[in-house]
Protein 1
Amino acid sequence: MDPKNNLKRLISQMDDSYDGALITPGSNLYYLTGLNPKNVLERLFSVIVYPDKKPVLIIPKLYEDYIEQSSIDFENIYVWGDDQDPYKYLEKALKDLKGCNKNLLIEDSMSADVLMKIKDLLGKYSWSSLNSETSRFRKIKSKEEVRHMKKAAEIADHTFEALLEEQLIGKTEIELASHIDLLLKEFGASDTSFETMVASGPNSANPHHFPSKRRLKEKDIVIFDYGAKYKGYCSDISRTVAIKKAPEGSKKVYDIVKSALSKSKEIVKAGIEARHIDKQARDVIVDEGFGENFKHRVGHGIGLDAHEEPYLTGENREKIKKGMTFTIEPGIYLKGRYGIRIEDDIYTMEKEGKSLTKSDREFICL
Ligand code: CO
């Protein structure tokens, strides 16, 4: 990742439409400046980007050491202590905007708390989504970015392998989820890419179940859905297993999901529309009579964020390009009984999609 170059691209895109960009911590800040502060909470940490001069950084004194993480040449760096008001620096920085376009790019994840404090200062501008500009180039991953994503996927694969060695029966979903988080970090993740999901028995029929105190038992189906962060980049994998004995009919359902996954992977290549990848998986599931039980889009883009563009919905006509990375994750959810989902991370090459996650996709009975 080359923040200097990324920032240059954003600035060249701002030309006639925007007066500047107001960025707070998150994946855009990291992508554009290399700064990736954690737990900033209510303290103002911001970068103001101008089309015609170097950017300004406003940073809490507590985070002063982070400045060296950035290769960006700032016009001004305002370091503020807890007994100072950082908003006076922001006011000054905003006054330096030329203001001819009356339009500012605003970080999408900026907290409303910050936005409310500065809304009067921003009164003369309309606000546009920074994501909508950055995602145009963030979607296409460089070789280096793909290397990081591959590593994040490998960490997820190693974690699954290690998990299969464990005694799962009798453990609660919460215990297993924390164990997965620990394994991810032991294998090299800096963090998890989202909250780990372990859904057992009837809970697996809820696609976004939150781990509970339920203990795994014989004849349970269990979905594990988790991901690693490596150098800022995410992986996202789901695997479904049976405990000791598979419930009746579950092998058939598993094979349908597996076939939906492999059939939709087969058609991935540069130039294909996102919606066709969704349809390919959906057709397999609908033909088998489980259309109603596949409740979500087939996948989402992945990179610095666990969910980002492109979204693989039935409606999205966007053409998939070489270098795009996304998940394919068909599932069938049978309320009150069990659910099955298999998810891989895919990297688009000219003529095919390459799976970054490689864990076993056979129906494993533990
Ligand atoms: Co996913």
Protein 2
Amino acid sequence: MKLEISPSILSADLAQLGREIELCEVGGADAIHVDVMDGRFVPAITFGPIIVKACQRVTKLPLDVHLMIVEPEKHLEAFAEAGAALLTVHVEACAHIHGTLQAIKRLGIKAGVTFNPGTPLDALWNVVDLVDLVLIMSVNPGAGGQKFIAHSIDKVREVKRILAEVGSEAVIQIDGGINTETAKAAVDAGATNLVAGSAIFGSPAGIVGAIGALRNAVN
Ligand code: DX5
Ligand code: ZN
């Protein structure tokens, strides 16, 4: 499977968002990762559907929307209508994770499920047939620029084992603290999609250079 890189616009210069997304395209990004935070599931508040819509106007790249919000089922339609190609929900935030993933699929878009660093993967067995992507959080969600949590690598390996056992071709995504030092171990363990915020938008190499450096680091 080709390695995908999904820059997280949480660390972008939001006053220049259109230009920054354009540079992600030039650099060969595979998707744009949009971190939605509600001030409840995580302390910070970030973007809503209108920002997803604004992104859709400036790029053809798929919009990968990571919902760090409580009761995500109330907002699925709004994000799908705004142009999300993929909606990823937290098992910790869903009272009915199976039903919420079914609801995403009914909207005709891709569904992702994600697990915080402290959450075991048990629930994955029960929803694996519904998901196009499994996201392993390698930091506690809520902010960019945090330190990579090393045990996430074992979880990625475990996800890979579970997917192989059931014959799923779901993407394994990792998010948090991914940079040229941590990416290779994640990919060797089975991650096929890397989310990176500060390593791309905060890099002195620039956005295009940083995406290239991340790809080189895993080869
Ligand atoms: C964290 C977000 C991440 C964040 C990653 O809650 O889900 O997508 O932007 O930022 P970095 O790559 O800086 O750790
Ligand atoms: Zn994210």
